[in-house]
Amino acid sequence: MSWLSTTSLEGDFVTLEPLSEEHVSGLKEAVLDGESWQLWFANVPNPESMLQYVTEAIVDARKGGIAFAVICKVTNKIVGTTRFYNVDAKNRRAMLGYTWYCAAVRRTPVNTECKLLLLKFIFEQCAANAVEFRTHFSNQASRKAIERLGAKQDGIIRSHQIMKDGSIRDTVMYSIISSEWPSVKNQLLSKLG
């Protein structure tokens, strides 16, 4: 049995459903709003590669992670995706990432509540020791969002990945550990206020 049980998570603003091929058309529509795949430093799929992206996420989730479709409760539309991956069940650690949203929900409670639901699940139901976040060194928006969560920077892996455009990515690593979770939780609840 997997350490992280596949489950839906529900808040006031979003529902996180385990990702399936049924979500592909909604994700295609969502990614068109903002065209984030055109950002050279982002790993966001374009509409044509969405089925492959979802299929790979589902296969990866079979290794112990969970991939989610993010559904906005106000519109009942899929607005993005996120997942736990590179899960280390023995040490109760996981990475949280592959997160992207359509432009319409940026700077709304969607991301804050998603992170609250995901972190509450992994720290309180699964007794995680740590959750790790990784992002491109040049992705300032992502870095600021991770830091606003209360995650601490652990370091930078230089020349870590070759990007789809051939450039080489330096990856910034962050984490939240279990002893920090109560403070992070209070901060997220305050933002949703």
Protein described:
There is one protein chain. The protein is α+β, with helices and mostly antiparallel strands and 193 residues long. The chain has one domain (9-192): 3-Layer(aba) Sandwich (Aminopeptidase), CATH 3.40.630.30. It has helices at 24-32, 50-61, 109-125, 140-149, 181-192; strands at 9-10, 14-18, 66-72, 77-88, 93-101, 130-136, 152-162, 168-177. Strand 4 and strand 5 (93-101) form a beta hairpin. Helix 3 (109-125) runs antiparallel to helix 5. The longest helix has 17 residues, at 109-125. The model has no long low-confidence stretch (mean pLDDT 93).
Give me some keywords for this one.
33% strand; 193 residues; 8 strands; single chain; 5 helices; alpha+beta; Aminopeptidase
Under CATH, the topology can be stated as Aminopeptidase
Query: How many strand segments?
Result: 8
Report how far the terminal alpha carbons are from each other: 37 Å
Sheet/helix structural class: alpha+beta
Quick synopsis:
The chain has 193 residues and is of the alpha+beta class. It contains 5 helices and 8 strands.
List the helices and strands and how they pair.
Elements lengths: L8 E2 L3 E5 L5 H9 L17 H12 L4 E7 L4 E12 L4 E9 L7 H17 L4 E7 L3 H10 L2 E11 L5 E10 L3 H12 L1
Parallel strand pairs: 5-6
Antiparallel strand pairs: 1-2, 2-3, 3-4, 4-5, 6-8, 7-8
Helix pairs in contact: 3-5
